[in-house]
Amino acid sequence: MVRALAFAYLSRRMAPPILALKAVRLADGPVMLFDGVDLALEARTRACLVGRNGAGKSTLLRVLAGQTLPDDGERTVTPGTRIAYVPQEPQIEGAVVLDHAVSGGAEQHRAEAALQAFGMDPQKPAQGLSGGEMRRVALAKAFAEDPDVILLDEPTNHLDILAIETLEAEIAASRAAALIVSHDRAFLERVTQRCFWLEFRQVRRLDQGFAAFDDWVEKIEAQEAEEARRLDRAIQREQHWMARGVTARRARNEGRRRRLISMRQDMADRMKEMRGTLNMGLASSGVAGKRVVEAKGISKAFGQRVLLKAFSTRILRGDRVAIVGPNGVGKTTLVKILLGELAPDAGEVKLGTNLTVNYIDQARGALSPELTLKEVLTPQGGDQVMVRGLPKHVNAYAKDFLFKDSQLRQPVKSLSGGERNRLLLARALANPANVMVLDEPTNDLDMDTLDLLEDLLADYDGTLILVSHDRDFIDRLATSTIGLDGTGRAVETPGGWQDFMSQNPGFFGAPAKVEPAKPTPRAPAAPPKAAAKLTYKDQRRLAELEALVADMPAKIAALEAALADPNLYGRDPAGFERYSRALETARTQLVAAEDEWLALESRREAIESGR
């Protein structure tokens, strides 16, 4: 059925694009960025533009926006088409943010509503905004203009998770076609219907959402690698690997997945035990030699603003703890308290012995623009980099971070923004440490670097504390997640972001005003006998979930194919809305089913292993 729908869709005559490039060529000095690029956006199409670092994605967006002229080729726009463009580093002008939001011609009431949707006061002064606030204002301006096409360059940078979800909702509700450059996989999977892949100066097209991108690319690369093997073109194979080597590592190792599931189960068991013992004063009862941090009843406030109230946690060696919540709720403050850099107002924090901490904050330090890449990695000279206490040749270490040998002699100022961030991480991660703290590590990183960083951290045998808004990154790494809502509430849940949200629905909404009554103390019950196997009800539910998870992708693909019809909305507006609601429901059901299946499967494995 899915193949038939796909064939019917591809066979239909496509509606004329409202914005298109044909045979576009553009050089940046001696470097050819585009050599015959074709790209078309039809009305209401939501697509992503994906490519390796330095491929020219941002430049291509500027060509589409009409801000950069190509050397050759054509850019065509349907007359009357309104285009909104949000660059990677927006500049906000005017006395208050409302001035900027209406500067493109948006009606004031629409601009005010858009700003409020993104959590911004329209009368907030435009000077002194944080990076996240500037991005919110720029996004609000774009949506307030009610464009026909919206071009977004890394729109989730410096946004917290809740703001990203607001952006997802705005894109879904907008009638505009969208082309998005982003490193946020979870975001792209939720909003896109088409992928454009910028590779080797040309663009390839996939008429599916980003969830299908990795498999599609791997098939293409496998075909090309096989052709190269048959032709015995070893040099071409090497270049191919250097360009897209991370993709091969993107396929998740089954053993690593099971290890993460096991670690999350261990964390869940430990947290159950902790809830039963913390109130009895576990001051020095941590596991000898394994305790990293033990916090009991910690609270923190700045003036009248309460960030933490009576929060307790225990972090052991090897744990990977994510800290999530809106911007400004105290995530970095909690990290500093846990590391002993900031004293709590109440409660106590005990640190383990022999801790060496590597703290990579949002700023990530600075790089001298005149230094070469090699000089940054070997500040003492020579050809060796000390990587966590062991020597490694600088060329080999640079390759680990996707740099070519020829780049070692280039000055920092010649590197792209993503390459500079990659170099900063390479320098920082070489330092020996048994505790790694990453504060918003995914900001401004391209997908290749994110994949590399994820692999490095997945194999890291120390303790990881991660502050991030990247839901996919958290889900793939975290053994537990601590959520802060800014009113003092802090909750820790085993697993990643999806686990946290499924076990704490509404946590980031308005806090309850009435506290529950304290239960009457009861005598402790005898511990239940360990289950020998899943209950009959759970076994049936596990089978139902397996069938549901297997069937839902086909249903989702069919709905996506129906919505991809460019004439559907004009022909049947009610049908379009019905299909849209059905697609959103199906995606939500699939995520919930996968989470429930993972929980039941983890429980089954734990029972069978005798734990």
Overview of this protein structure:
With about 600 residues, this protein is α/β, with parallel strands linked by helices. It folds into four domains: about 15-80 and about 145-250, Rossmann fold; about 255-355 and about 435-505, P-loop containing nucleotide triphosphate hydrolases (Rossmann fold); about 365-430, no CATH class; about 535-610, Helix Hairpins (Orthogonal Bundle), CATH 1.10.287. Helices cover about 40% and strands about 20% of the residues. The chain contains 20 helices and 20 strands. It has helices at about 1-10, 55-65, 95-100, 110-115, 130-145, 160-175, 185-190, 215-230, 235-250, 255-275, 330-340, 375, 395-400, 415-430, 445-460, 470-475, 495-505, 535-565, 570, 575-610; strands at about 20-30, 30-40, 45-50, 70-75, 85, 150-155, 175-180, 195-200, 200-205, 290-300, 305-315, 320-325, 345-350, 355-360, 385, 390-395, 435-440, 465, 480-485, 490-495. The strands form five sheets. The chain has a six-stranded mixed β-sheet with strand order 5-6-7-3-8-9, sandwiched between helices. Strands 14-17-18-12-19-20 form a six-stranded mixed β-sheet, with helices on both faces. A three-stranded antiparallel β-sheet has the order 2-1-4, with helices on one face. Strand 19 and strand 20 form a beta hairpin. Helix 1 runs parallel beside helix 18 (about 535-565) and helix 8 (about 215-230) runs antiparallel to helix 9 (about 235-250). The protein is globular, with a radius of gyration of 26 Å. The two termini are about 45 Å apart.
